[in-house]
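Archive maintenance. Older records in this collection stored only the sequence; we are now back-filling the structure field for every entry so that each record is complete. The fields below show one back-filled record exactly as it appears after the update. Entries are processed alphabetically, and MFS transporter is next in the queue.

ARCHIVE ENTRY
Title: MFS transporter
Organism field: Pragia fontium
Length field: 415
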Amino acid sequence: MNHENKSNYVLLSGLLFFFFFTWSSSSSLISIWLNQEVGLRGTQTGIIFSAIAIVALCAQPLYGFIQDKLGLRKNLLWFLGFMLLMTGPFFIYVYSQLLKFNILLGALAGGLFIGATFFAGIGALESYIERVSRISGFEFGKARMWGSLGWASATFFAGMILNINPHINFWMASVSAAIFLFLLYQVKEVKVNALNKLEYGNPNKLTLKDALALLKMPDFWALVVFVMGVSIYNVYDQQFSVYFALLFSTPQQGNEMYGFLNSLQVFLEAGGMFLSPLLVNRIGAKNGLLLSGSIMALRIFGSGLADDTITISAMKLLHAVELPILLISIFKYISTHFDQRLSATLYLVGFQFITQVCASILSPLAGYGYDQLGFADTYTIMGTLVASFVLASFFLLRGERGNESCVTSSISTIK
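Back-filled structure field:
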């Protein structure tokens, strides 16, 4: 790796670190904040997450097509950076006040900001960096590892800070966003050589017709079926912190312990991001997807059976194994089965968009289930659903093609 590529790797890793630090500072304990500070119940919190998912699913196809059209230009990332900078003021002066005034108005405002900034924004950032990694010759997983470390670093302190004053977490998010913008300014646009242009095509010639043609491809819909199943992990995670905190003698102790657990999980996840490309390159993208889905089904189903803090913690930590394999496999599957020029569109539509569609439908249902059936029974139902979709995907997803061995190993690796 030459000096310019090494510099880009460091800067892009920094962007991921501070994006996730900002996101974690404001949102890793958002369910606890909504429950303990704002006073919302499970069903109401489900409505909040549904609103976020609806906005995200509207923004993700747009972000994907825009980023594919921009290619290696940073315009969309600048917009996201300034949105990140507004995180602290938004949560403190707008979001919390609107939620107390009117739950639906607050849900709408939160959905617009959080959905467009974080849940849609991360897909645009990851797809940009994954594309640069292929051209610059470094593993995306090694850069994405720093995103996990950023989330873990913020989460480690978030529970303790929440007990002191949740506003501190929100201001930390804005400070982190300022560093994100500074690093983005330092990133130089990658110059593609002739070979790169032949491989990745000309993004300026990309049309809406090219993107819509994906809807006619059986491979695309096979991927959608798989994503519908694994998207349940987002719904599971939304209010897990509330359930976890209930297992402790006081909410304050639960808040702190969840912060520590989530931080440990994401530190382990960072190690998984570093190592998973080796596994996925060995077993193939399809098998990587099926393996990650199977671990996810075990984790969620097992959470429904767990009745003590140690077992439920072990189930949560399985996420550190599952997520790196899932992210590496999804990028590898996309890059080896579809048009390279549409990588951002495919990731934001085929993965992120479908995830948010499912979340917008399932979040209120899950919240209702937590209130009426309890967390354990609801988790059992979720785990069964994931297992069913993974089984169907075994027959629908395509295995490795003969020419995939020619694809660089850097086309590997999602939070």
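Update note: The chain has one domain: 3-406. Residues 3-406 form a domain with the Growth Hormone; Chain: A; fold (CATH 1.20.1250.20).
Entry marked complete.
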